[in-house]
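Quick one: structure for this chain?
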Amino acid sequence: MPQTEGARLFRETWIAGVRKHFPGEPKPSYVTPWEDTPQWEREAAGAVFAQVRQFLDLSGGHAARLTREQKGRFVATCWTAQMYKHFEDPKPGYVADWPDLPDWQKETDSDIFEAIEEAV
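Got it. Here's what it folds into:
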């Protein structure tokens, strides 16, 4: 799967996860469709997709044996690195460590890893 399609898969899985796991009504920016997603966010999504794909490849497919939490942590860490890349001084919520993320975001990050895993 090309990285552009992977970035779109990332975003679509994010939106589906937010709609599934977010308590109440999410902020509109959380569910912005791909066509309206800012370029920096598209690039970040593509980079994280590529990192997960490479991680799966380098493990010989054995990364599939990670727990759901470990999968989500990997996505969250890769996303945090992208926030530092795209923002000089990112908002604290953009770079929060795993224990500080809300449960809905942890579940959504885990969903993203599993969607990429399934796609590749």
